[in-house]
Design brief:
alpha/beta; seven-stranded mixed beta sheet; 14 helices; about 15% strand; signal
Length: about 375
């Protein structure tokens, strides 16, 4: 089967070479003799025939996610399986027991490569841990496509493209919505106010960027209203934030990251933030962290909109989060398009495997802000999973 794929890629390369020899400009192509145009047409037909000759029924894609315990990954898996069925390819979707279990993911990626697949999809928990395996994939001519947070900082040429949400922009959108709800409190405060950020880790690119997007945008909006900000808490977020850090600032953006990714530890972080007397808002940068806020609020009953309430926002979806939005516990949440991400991933893997290099490029799969008012809209509902 791989010989057939190689033949298709070789044919495409030969056609590209012929086209380049005929001249790259539009004018040159227009001025070419009729006989040369016939050759070009024949070359294009050869490429189409070669692509059609690929035996897709024998294609196998290994996909290594960050886990299977969150409904988000189940939604990605659903999209993967739908697109695989449409294209007639085989997929194997795996993930570690926990998003902190880096060693297990490394073992899963090694097993995936040992299966000699047509292509591999990877959402890495830690890039450093998989660099040697990415080199192995290159040496074995196995194309790798990143998804979700992808593989930031991967060795050059080892990951051909990535499909994901623009996580920084998504975090910024959450900040805009939260700031709009607390703007008057920020403006009228006679003492510093606190905005909490619950992040499950400081290693995953997607989680980090959602946090940084929120932090930077909130600080930017506060500055536009004449208020200073300071980022405290986790060192990674403090160092990487673009926000101007000012001691004695009007707004304290407090980032909490647990020692390990457990529901109990993240709920404890959320509880601690909500118990700070100056906290006016709190944000959870993924399903895990949003659920931690919801859990903490079950005991504290502090989240909502109105006098004395803490404005809360989440990220992703899941039954608990959707219900919290509907009940007004969360002002709203950011949803990605996990099913579409899974479908896009398989399409990119297929394009890489069949030599359709022009189609293999980074793809933003989008995000939306959903609330109790719009979560039933068709455009939003298709991206919500329970």
């Amino acid at each position: 089967m791989k010989k057939k794929v190689l033949a298709a890629i070789l044919a495409a390369t030969m056609v590209a070479g012929l086209t380049a020899c005929g001249g790259g400009s539009k004018d040159a192509a227009t001025d070419a003799p009729a006989a040369e145009e016939t050759k070009d047409d024949a070359a294009e037909k050869t490429t189409d025939d070669a692509a059609a000759a690929v035996d897709t029924s024998n294609m196998s894609f290994e996909i290594v996610s960050k886990g299977l315990q969150h409904q988000y990954w189940q939604a990605v898996k659903k999209g993967v399986e739908q697109k695989a069925a449409e294209l007639g390819v085989t997929v194997n979707f795996v993930g570690p027991d926990s998003e902190s279990n880096i060693s297990q993911q490394v073992q899963q990626l090694e097993s995936a490569l040992n299966a000699n697949p047509t292509a591999v999809g990877l959402a890495a928990l830690d890039t450093e841990s998989v660099k040697d395996l990415l080199q192995k994939a290159m040496d074995s001519k196995i194309p790798v496509i990143g998804f979700d947070s992808g593989v930031p900082g991967a060795p050059e040429g080892s990951v051909l493209a990535n499909c994901s949400t623009d996580n920084y922009a998504a975090g910024a959108l959450a900040a805009e919505k939260v700031y709009e709800a607390v703007k008057d409190q920020v403006a009228n405060a006679t003492a510093p106010v606190r905005v909490g950020v619950v992040a499950q880790d400081a290693t995953s690119e997607s989680v980090i960027n959602r946090g940084l997007g929120f932090i930077d945008k909130f600080a930017e909006l506060a500055k536009a209203d004449g208020k200073t900000s300071n980022v405290v808490g986790n060192d990674k977020y403090i160092a990487d934030s673009k926000a101007e850090k000012t001691d004695g600032a009007d707004v304290v953006i407090d980032v909490r990251v647990p020692a390990s990714v457990t529901s109990e530890l993240s709920a404890a972080d959320a509880t601690a933030l909500m118990n700070e007397k100056d906290t006016i808002a709190i944000y959870g940068s993924n399903e895990h962290s949003a659920n931690a806020i919801i859990t903490a609020n079950e005991n504290l009953n502090k989240c909502g909109v109105g006098e004395g309430k803490i404005v809360a926002a989440g990220f992703d979806s899941g039954a608990a989060q959707i219900q919290a939005v509907k009940d007004g516990v969360l002002l709203g949440s950011i949803t990605q398009a996990p099913v579409a991400m899974g479908e896009t991933l398989v399409q990119l893997l297929y394009d890489a495997a069949t030599g359709n290099t022009a189609a293999v490029k980074d793809t933003d799969t989008g995000c939306q802000w959903y609330t109790a008012e719009n979560c039933g809209d068709a455009e939003i509902a298709q991206n919500l999973y329970e």
